[in-house]
Write a structure and sequence with these properties.
By secondary structure, the protein is mainly β. The protein folds into two domains: 23-30 and 141-258; 36-138 and 259-269, Immunoglobulin-like, CATH 2.60.40.10. It has helices spanning 3-16, 118-121, and strands at residues 25-30, 36-43, 47-48, 53-62, 69-70, 74-76, 82-84, 91-92, 106-114, 126-142, 147-152, 161-168, 172-180, 182-183, 188-196, 201-202, 206-211, 223-224, 231-238, 246-269. The strands form three sheets. Strands 3, 5, 6, 10, 11, 14, 16, 17, 18 and 20 form a ten-stranded mixed beta sheet that branches. A five-stranded mixed beta sheet has the order 1-12-13-15-19, with no helix packed on it.
Length: 272
């Protein structure tokens, strides 16, 4: 075969992510984007006179392939500033859809912020301050490509090897590890590592779901809280009964609450 054609075929396989490393580590599943990304947070005028009102703009872009539930998007750390919104709320649309076919939906939010009057500013010529936004939401990550584990009769196993797979959504990185093949009828362990990858923070517990339930033990950890940690490790037993070789597709789903924030600076100038 022409060497140029062979090189092209190898390149296509690498780009498409279809290469399979067998019993070793599989290439990481990296979803595009950064989960729910803050693409713009700005103030229409960074210099305010006492009593002046300016607009604050926020734009979010959603790269999630799973549905997320965005909570109350709000400004905080306003100090002497006062904020207001339209009666329908600051954000349009009120909910954001999932990313499909490479298209990331957008949500836009807008507030009006008013500087205090001269009496509140006091004798300062200028006073630096800031405005911050908090975006809380319920999020989820799961492996779309199955973690394939082979089960065989013990008498047919000559040797085992370590197998692992990693995936990420820009907010969490997850790694799954076990040995393969696994003897039929014997309990073996799958190890999971979950670590924070994005710029936001985890609020509360990780909630774990395992599939298929016929393979995973019902005693697998259901939740854990990463207190003072960016990562945690859990283990879960798996077992398949039978007398002939089978391969099972394993899936892990992690639900979690995530909070992102952004800050923009403002200076209140007293020209009087």
């Amino acid at each position: 075969m022409d060497s140029r054609i062979l090189s092209l075929m190898v390149l296509v396989l690498a780009v498409s992510g279809c290469t399979d490393s067998g019993g070793g580590s599989e290439p990481a599943q990296q979803l595009s984007g950064k989960g729910l990304e803050v693409t713009d947070f700005r103030v229409s005028d960074k210099t305010l006179s006492p009593g002046q009102t300016v607009n604050v703009f926020l734009q979010l872009k959603n790269y999630h392939r799973n549905e997320i539930d965005i909570g109350d998007v709000s400004l905080y750390n306003l100090g002497l500033l006062e904020s207001s919104t339209d009666s329908g709320g600051p954000c349009t649309p009120n909910e954001i859809s999932t990313a499909k076919k490479g298209v990331a939906p957008i949500m836009e939010c807008e507030w009006r912020v008013t500087a205090p009057d001269e009496d509140a500013v006091g004798g300062f010529d200028q006073r630096p301050t800031s405005v911050a936004v908090k975006i809380p939401y319920d999020s989820v990550i799961e492996n779309y490509r199955p973690f394939k584990v082979k089960f065989q009769p013990l008498s047919e196993i000559n040797r085992t090897s370590k197998k692992s797979m990693s995936f990420s959504n820009g907010e969490l990185d997850v790694n799954m590890r076990t040995e393969t093949p696994i003897p039929l009828g014997q309990d073996k362990t799958v190890d999971f590592s979950v670590s924070k990858a994005g710029s936001g923070r985890i609020n509360g517990n990780y909630l774990f779901k395992y599939s298929p339930s016929t393979v995973f033990s019902d005693k697998c950890p259901q939740q854990d809280e990463p207190i003072l940690r960016d990562s945690l490790d859990i283990s879960c037993s798996i077992n398949v009964e039978g007398s002939s070789e089978v391969t099972r597709n394993l899936f892990l789903t992690v639900d979690y609450k995530y909070v992102k924030s952004a800050t923009s600076s403002i200076t209140i100038v007293n020209n009087s």
